[in-house]
Amino acid sequence: MSESSAPAGRVTLADLEGDPHPVLSGLRAAAPAVWVPVLGAWLVTGYDQAVAVLRDARTFTVDDPRFSTAQVVGPSMLSLDGAPHARHRGPFNRPFRHDEVQARLAAFTRAETGRLVSAIEPHGAAELRRAVAGPLAVAVMAEVLGLGQADPGTILTWYDGIVAAVQAEGAAAGRGRAADGATSVAAGGTAAFGELAASLREVIARGGSLLAEVTGPLAEAPLAEAEAISNAAVLMFGGIETTEGMIANALLHLLSSPAQLALVLANPGLVPAAVEESLRLEPAAAVVDRYATAGTRLGSAEIRAGDQVTVSITGANRDPAVFADPDAFDVRRSNAGRHLAFAHGPHFCLGAHLARLEAQVAVGTLLARLPRLRLDPGYPSAPRGLVFRKPPALRVRWDTG
After folding, report:
1. Dihedral in degrees, nearest 10, Cα atoms 127, 131, 134, 136
2. 272-294 pLDDT per residue, tens
3. How confident is the model at residue 62 (pLDDT cuts 50, 70, 90)?
4. Which residues 6+ apart lie within 8 Å of 111 measured at CB?
5. Residue 125 pairs with which residues in a beta bridge?
6. 3-class secondary-structure state, position 19
7. Average pLDDT, the chain
8. What is the pLDDT of residues 307-347, one digit of tens each?
9. 187 falls in which pLDDT band (50, 70, 90)?
10. Which residues lie below 8 Å from residue 199, measured CB to CB, with a gap of 6+?
């Protein structure tokens, strides 16, 4: 690896967790890929270079011991490349197609969103991440995985345990040693995954579910039970974390932009466009990691075999070479759909159609049902997070009388 440029050497984790956009813009202006010491990785902020990395799974792989998710839930479509990746992902492709998602889950998503909004409607104020965005994402993923009868609080406990363990594994791998408290966190994650796996084995045994389909004799290339469960765990992780963030970020952008909000209120058909522009401006998954399998060049960067290459989706989505006036939220942006919020290439997000459905229904329902919906000025709502970005809380008010 080469020495970092001076600006990259001064980047801190606090810079990237708080408001990373000025830092990413400065790094991109210097070079589209630079070595950032605090990350121990090449950080890719240019759009074309990000696409090149995400498209080339032979040179930039996820199949590396430092990819922490596999350490907790086992190999899955998220942590494999090539033929093994295709074998794990293949059985899930059809159920997550746009037409299948609409047929299986649109009515459920609308009903669940309506129920959640009805619960807060009389009160005139709420924190929307925990009142609507998060519970909707949990309910939909429970429905997808056949866990609809499980207590949502229990599902969130499993989810929190697995996420904490994945993050602890990643921190330990990045430092080359065990992080403080990582052993107990990892044990908690193992226990949480064990409880989730036990429930999913019951789902498979009952039949009539997605997981029963992908492990059953009618599947073209059925997965083993343990493989289906590992993939279900990563689907749950992505389906809750990033969808909650998508919904919260889209609402924040609209409620922070009176002119854009007025356009959408006057024409609700712009809700999907608003969701796409929000995904571009502040993707819920800010970065994705890859590992170089061989020496290669990326712009002026001389990347060596084994180097970590972190793609800043956030940075690529604001590349002015692709998106004019990239820091503006514009629901009429003609090329917003070129964003990389769902990644690109073989690991393009399997659940993209479902996440879009949930975000569009949630945003559209809230705007239609809650008159003069607005941010509560007494509380901060700026997005935060190094890997996953969303408002820690999204407190709002609306008229009730």
Report:
1. -140
2. 999 999 999 999 999 999 999 99
3. very high
4. none
5. 397
6. coil
7. 92
8. 999 999 999 999 999 999 999 999 999 999 999 999 999 99
9. confident
10. 147, 150
DSSP string over 44-68: E--HHHHHHHHH-TTTEES-STT-T
**Cβ-based neighbours of 60, under 8 Å, separated by 6 or more:** 53, 54, 290, 291, 292, 293, 309
pLDDT in tens, 65-118: 888 788 888 899 999 999 999 999 999 999 999 999 999 999 999 999 999 999
CA 15 – CA 7 distance, rounded (Å): 12
**60 phi and psi angles, rounded to 5 deg:** -125, 95
Write the single-letter amino acid at 188.
G
The answer to whether the beta carbons of residues 340 and 54 sit under 8 Å apart is: yes
Residue-wise burial string across 257-290, b where 16 or more C-beta atoms lie within 10 A, e elsewhere? beebbebbeeeeebbbbbbbbbbbbbbbbbbbbb
CA-only gyration radius of the chain, Å: 21
Q: Is the pTM of this model over 0.85?
A: yes
Q: Where are the beta strands (DSSP E) in 80-147?
A: 125-127
Contact 239, 349 (CB under 8 A): no
Half-sphere exposure of 147 (CA within 13 A, CB side): 27
Measured CA to CA, the distance from residue 172 to residue 28 in angstroms comes to 28
